[in-house]
Task: structure prediction
Amino acid sequence: MAITTRVDALKKLGLPISASQLDIKNAYKELSKKYHPDVVGEEYSYLFVEINEAYSFLNNNPVPARKVLGGDEKAMMRYQTQRNNRDMAKRYEFKDKKRKKEKEAALEKAAKEARRRREEEKARKLEAEKEAKRQIKAMEMAIVISRMLGENKD
Result:
């Protein structure tokens, strides 16, 4: 039996006509666990299929806010304000996450740059030490040679 109306779908899930999306979701979860073919067996799998059809119908055919609120303009304004606030909060949350990622990327980049500079400085110091040791050896050799030459003159 194909589900063609919201009322039929809600009846399949055992919900009243005024059920919210959260009620629908919770009822679907409970019934799908209860009537899953692994739980009740293959002969009752049609129940699971019907529950999925009902849930799919309700998700693909949401009720406009005007119908839910019955044309009450104040309620519509409150609903629209809540929706706008929720959307704004999501945008701020998204922007905050983006800023946080950018900040983390900048910090990581700065840390890499600092490590690179430390490594370069360390390499320069090692090179300077090697050069100093080479010069000391050269001076020691020059001293030894000059002493040898000085002894040969006598």
Residues 95 and 101 are 10 Å apart (CA to CA). Helices lie at 6-13, 21-34, 37-40, 45-60, 65-69, 73-153. The radius of gyration is 39 Å.
